[in-house]
């Protein structure tokens, strides 16, 4: 459905994909945002739009030189155009050249277990005249990128270029040609050289590395690339990045892996028949392994305590410094509200695992402290705002820098929180469906919502805040879940420029939680969740499917924003 320009008098237009009239209070909220002087071009409303705080949930707001700390955000960094990317054809190409291809190609990526695999990718220009830093490695390579681009550390976590320190070990990528001209890859987990082979007609990401070409012991790689220094660059330059939907990282010719530009879902190799008679046991195991609501982990696993970003906790807002212990115990927990863990089956009877969570208590506390600061600044400056929740920070100020730093830390916490839960979730499913034998996902999708990032739109650098929306650039994979008991969708973005390359993040609420509890009974919940293995008690009555918009209607309204890759039906749901 194409958008409709709403008749709202404001500084910029409001474009809506909702296909329904806004209520008076929703119209006022849209007008408030569109009246801010720093809003760029227009405000875009997604099909699931509904009342929020300060700004409508389901709205996409591009801003110039300012940001409203009502949404959690993450910045996606990028590289200069002459940065070389090795492809599996044995050659390396500049990012700028790859961006002109307008087609997919195959790069090297690193899995969570430290295995190098092949992955489909696409390249694009992401920012013009960007500020830069130079990362110098101990192998003599120099990488020029934006300060915020994340590099993969040796333990598989990420850290921004500007925060890398001397002697930090990065995830290494080594390749060379053998005497017959074949490309050899050194696997980080073993250090041994293997022949890289791929059948382009029957492409399989995880099976392309042949183990038949072990080299002599003296060729085994026994060291990692380490950082020598990170230094500012005086000039600015246009920058580019890759989208790697399956693994969200890629190798540079310089010999390291870096991150590429929510919710998480993985497609398993299992058919739905394997679930028969096992759903309740799986649900009980999930509820025992992953804390929900306000609960936290009793035992903290090694991967959590070893998370690299704990070293940056001391640099977060002073108001959260007493919460480090709680943040550690909550990493790997679901939380409450509309957070969920689900087992789904698609229309081809393939089993999917899906979860939705965020940055838990620590992210909420950081947001509240910065929102309070923004409101105090607005009050001192006597700023005339249509809504106090639209208080904002202006770029170049210490408050903006502090907020942006904490914002990125919280977003990375949220990402790792999902990774920890998905690993536990996957292990439980493996226990019941494959006798504990690990499986290789057929597709991995991760996407953020409720966040901000720097992007290029209509030829200009802007901050894009997606409040209850998902990025949907061309070839971006996304997840659009319905309510429990309804369908969910795996989608691929169409890159609609008028929506700032965005789409809906779910069904969207029809009524508040309080109203839902008054309007529905436990019998209604039981009836509306027939066929779904889930809790059926009054504690989750506010999440009843009837409280949400029909997901089919939402999808119909954004056919110009995304294409559907897979249609899923929940068969098991654990609510927060």
What does this structure look like?
It is a single chain. 20% of the residues lie in helices and 33% in strands. It has 576 residues and is of the alpha+beta class. Strands 21, 22, 23, 25, 29, 30, 32 and 33 form an 8-stranded mixed β-sheet that branches. Strand 19 (249-251) and strand 20 (257-259) form a beta hairpin. It is globular and about 70 Å long.
Write a brief caption for the model.
By secondary structure, this protein is α+β, with helices and mostly antiparallel strands. Helices cover 20% and strands 33% of the residues.
Structural class, by secondary structure, is alpha+beta
Total count of strands: 33
Fraction in helix: 10-25%
Quote the average pLDDT: 85
Main sheet properties:
8 strands, mixed
Enumerate the spans where pLDDT stays under 50 for 5 or more consecutive residues: 71-76, 199-222
The percent range for strand residues is 25-35%
Quaternary state, please?
Answer: single chain
Q: What separation lies between the terminal Cα atoms?
A: 33 Å
- Morphology: globular
Task: Count the DSSP helices.
Answer: 10
Rg of Cα set: 24 Å
